[in-house]
Amino acid sequence: MLCRLLEEKLKLIFALPKGRILNEALPLLERAGIKPESSFHDNEDRRLIFRTNVSGLHIIRVRSFDVATFVAFGAAHIGVVGSDVLMEFDYPENYSPLDLKIGKCRMMVAQPVKLKVDDDPARWSHVSVATKYPEVTKQHFAARGVQAECIKLNGAMELAPKLGLAKRIVDLVDTGKTLKENGLVAVEQIADVSSRLVVNRAALKTKPELLRKWVERIREAVNG
Ligand code: PRP
User: N or C, which terminus of the chain has less Cβ within 10 Å?
Assistant: First the structure.
């Protein structure tokens, strides 16, 4: 009985996002002392939860938007998530104590190069936008009295202007290569983006020592 209680106390689910952040997050976690089992790196492996070198600490690998949801509902205790996702989903249960200084990019409004020639953003009154971020987009435009009609997509936003789905997009821009190759140009920046450590607030109360220990170790790994 005591053993099971102790096991439960030491159990921690760490949510990591698939995609490009993962490649930067793994070395950071390794510096903090967390290393997933080798099958985590095997693309053929269809498991979604993995053991680590730390007893009781498991890693789940989910879509970046879902990291925020898993942590907010306490299904995961701690995670790595882009500030773009935290801006879009304002979950009060998510506490983000640490900028991990990885996954840096910008959230931008972009449009076809041709449109830019005779278009002044200051004169917009209504815009149609394809985006993963309808809430952030609406707030961004509403702040200056522009009504944004948003079409929610989960990826490949750059296709939308070309195929007439929406005139503009709001998306993340890193090197700018994707915009360029699709005949688009960034016209406004909404936010600087980087990855954050996110912790479930209730878990901070039930596992305070354990979570604070990992937050501090990861903080040292970021600064070290
Ligand atoms: C992101 C983003 C852009 C692209 C920008 O997509 O949504 O499409 O990267 O990067 P760049 O400026 O360096 O070209 P990602 O590749 O992460 O995939 P996603 O569309 O599934 O989000």
Answer: N
